[in-house]
Amino acid sequence: MRLLRELRLRGRREIQEIRPNCYVHRIETNANGRVIGTAYFDEKRVAHLQKAKAVVVCANGAETPRLLLLSANKQFPNGLANSSGLVGKYLMLNSGPSAMAVFEHPLNDYKGVAVSRVLHDFYELDPQKVGFYGGGGLDARFDLTPINFALNGYDMGGLPPGTPRWGKEFKAALAHNYTRTLEIVSHGTSLPVESNSFSLDPDLQDAWGLPALRMTYKDHPDDLKLGAFLRDRIMELLDVANAVQKWASPVEEQTFAYHLLGTCRMGNDPKSSIINADHRAHDVKNLFLCDGSSLVTSGRGQPTETISALAYRAADRITALAGRGDI
Ligand SMILES: Cc1cc2nc3c(=O)[nH]c(=O)nc-3n(C[C@H](O)[C@H](O)[C@H](O)COP(=O)(O)OP(=O)(O)OC[C@H]3O[C@@H](n4cnc5c(N)ncnc54)[C@H](O)[C@@H]3O)c2cc1C
């Protein structure tokens, strides 16, 4: 224990520098298949190589697999840590249809910070009863700023369908509805499907001339059934709460997302996963991945506390491995 504490303290002392606005575009390896450092562009686009005894990638579920794929070389022709061919695959986004309602009296939901009050009655659904696998939470969280509310907020816009979008009536609707509107969003399962993935786009390039990220995604049919189920429960809640008017987002295939999970899976078998329980890449001893990419299921929404908990655990484990000279 004393040794671990000492290593942690030493580790803290050795964190010396954050280099903002840098873009790591490649992880370099030597002939022994060990990582030797990362190649990056600084904010002036000057290229550098940062040597390292070990590299921990925490770029999340899109950019972590992209970086591994960009790091392909003769020894790792399919990308770094990708002997399984699964880097970038099993992408999960979490489903999330929502509905909104206007009430007779002001709710003033805009006041204070947006906090989640998640109802978990539908977290454990019985597949035999509902006819699909999955579950999730319902989250009443009106977090639209006035400008978002007026201009088609990030989800579905704040005003009921059919409200005029200009002139006197528009202004009156904004003034009346902003304080009286409630939104309930759902946070649901996305099932892991191998063909859902991030990969390198063969045609498109980013501003540095490197292959851009390509997302391929089709919701599992059960995810869409779950979305419709949760949306219907939201509408029932709004009914019994006596909403004056309510409307729901359509349950449709997802084309973008906030949660980026599962693209470098954790597991014991190098044939079906990228990293082990210590977050160490099966194929590259001194390479570690630590972010949403390691998740093997999407959970039922809101992944960040799990990602944070795993980061603490990874720090302990990597410190312990380093202490044993096992990196
Ligand atoms: C709009 C929105 C709402 C969300 N709401 C919730 C919520 O309510 N609850 C919840 O649990 N989660 C939520 N999330 C998800 C949450 O933000 C992520 O799960 C979390 O940020 C993941 O943390 P991370 O540190 O692994 O990755 P990130 O926070 O994405 O950090 C990765 C970092 O790596 C950097 N990076 C990437 N590539 C490179 C590169 N090549 N070189 C250098 N740096 C690089 C990025 O700039 C970034 O700073 C939301 C996400 C969005 C977008």
Could you please describe the fold and organization of this structure?
- 26% of the residues lie in helices and 20% in strands.
- The chain has helices spanning 2-14, 60-70, 127-130, 146-150, 167-177, 221-240, 304-323; strands at residues 23-29, 35-41, 47-51, 55-57, 98-102, 118-119, 136-140, 181-188, 197-205, 211-216, 245-248, 287-289.
- It has a 5-stranded antiparallel beta sheet with strand order 6-7-8-5-11, with helices on one face.
- α1 (2-14) packs across α7.
- The protein starts with a helix and ends with a helix.
- The structure holds flavin-adenine dinucleotide (FAD).
- The site of flavin-adenine dinucleotide (FAD) has 16 residues, from β1, α2 and α7.
